[in-house]
Amino acid sequence: MSTCGKHLFYRDRKEWNDITPVPQDDNGRHIVNIAYSEEFVDAHDYFRAVLLKNELSERTFSLTSEILLMNPANYTAWEYRRRIIKEISSDLNAELRFVGSLIEEYSKNYQEARSFGRLL
What we know:
3% strand; Serine Threonine Protein Phosphatase 5, Tetratricopeptide repeat; 120 residues; protein farnesyltransferase activity; 2 strands; Protein farnesyltransferase/geranylgeranyltransferase type-1 subunit alpha; globular; 5 helices; mainly alpha; Prenyl_trans_a
């Protein structure tokens, strides 16, 4: 089983066995290779897969939390999370706390989080 510290990769989680990860494909059009962490690659491969399936569920909601903690400027993750919240009737108070914590920690990206908060 692959773990880095206490992190459990999505590829090692039983509840994600039904999803085939979708690797990033730049078609060879990149100036430099970005050295993403293994956790980042794993989570984003699963994120791309559920986006393609348009899965709106508790597990994809949880996945967007991890994606946004890795990169709060990910507009696609914010939009997808908004759609998930509408579908699963998430706890809006908990969501506002999550958004608030991202604003505090990553004030540079407050615009995305603030816009998202207004949609709630």
